[in-house]
Amino acid sequence: MVSMKHKPVLLAAIVFAISAICAHAQQPASADAKPAAPQAVIASQGGISLTFADMDTFAQHIPADKRAGFFNSPTRIDAVIGNLLVQKQLAAEARKAGMDRDPQAAADAEPANDEVLGKAWLQRFRAEVKVPDLGELAREHYMAHKEIYVSAGTLTVKDVSISTESRSEAEAQAIAATVEKKATANPDQFDALVEEYSDAPNKATTHGLLEQVDAPGKYVEAFAAAAKALGKAGDISPVISTPGALHVIKLVERLPSQQLGFDAVKADIIKQQTSEYIDRQVQNHVDELRNQPMTADPEAVASLRTRYGVLPNIPGIKQAPPAGK
Description:
By secondary structure, the chain is an alpha+beta fold. Helix content is 50%, strand content 14%. The protein is elongated and about 95 Å long.
């Protein structure tokens, strides 16, 4: 067994080293060797051992015809060993807390399954994280990022929509010109123009009123741009052309963007910071488990490259290279 603190590099080095020996002998690592016993240990960490039986269970999640290719990579082997050891350590913590004997857990899933127990334990760990008072931190965040806590300005208009699908383009242009002329002369009579000329199917309920016209993506660019160009309430636009219709619009209201006070956004900031704090505590715990010293059997680790099959030597298809290549 080899003890490792910097396990990712050394695990890969082990696999490459054994592969180099096999390559020198001009035969696959498992050509004549008997597969290791299921209970043989591959690696250990934090008082937990990873066996070939554990790895065989993991391999069952990979389609049979893909396993040889998957394990023909020291990087993948390294990652799988590390992840399974963390999973088994989490499951051990769950068992220590009695979660495997919890009637609800038994009803919901297989209580002896390391993957299920590990996930359940992380969920409990997350739920039990004690979050400190984040009020002052939230205020500091607000003061440093006030520019993002602004209520968006909004434009409200009334619209006369003249269909170009139910009449010719020339007819639509003539109607639109009439509406523009009358609206410019008497903006206060715009509601009557909506009722007389608009083809909008919902005009009986909306009376041509359109809100948040400047909201991103809500209206076609030509329409939104024309609304934004209007300066003050009562201004009338020139004729606007959009797919399927011509429009004349009147600006009803322009509300500018406004800075939101801390009290208005405090709850949202604290909610976000609480989520981030809990995420960090969970990740820190997983990292503590992952970074514990590990011991590994070099030959056992390297044998995983061929335990689930050997890729055929197909011209033009490269297998994972031996050490140093």
